[in-house]
């Protein structure tokens, strides 16, 4: 049973419900195609992480985006 966990930033730029459906479908299909995994037992989880809880190069995503 493959288990895939996708983490994305939440908030205003979070993926839409449709985009999440596409990610889940696409990852499931890719695992079936590349690794011959059964889509019936493939689990895909999408976690939305608050931008204050995600850091890059010592700064939160919130802070980095406010610099632009």
TrEMBL record:
The active site is at residue 2. It comes from the Bacteria. The lineage of its organism: Bacteria, Pseudomonadati, Pseudomonadota, Gammaproteobacteria, Pasteurellales. This is Tautomerase. Gene3D superfamilies: Macrophage Migration Inhibitory Factor. Its EC number is 5.3.2.-. Belongs to the 4-oxalocrotonate tautomerase family. One of its GO terms (molecular function) is isomerase activity. Keywords: Isomerase. Residues 2-62 form the 4-oxalocrotonate tautomerase-like domain. PANTHER family: 2-HYDROXYMUCONATE TAUTOMERASE (PTHR35530:SF1), TAUTOMERASE-RELATED (PTHR35530). InterPro entries: 4-OT, 4-OT-like_dom, Tautomerase/MIF_sf.
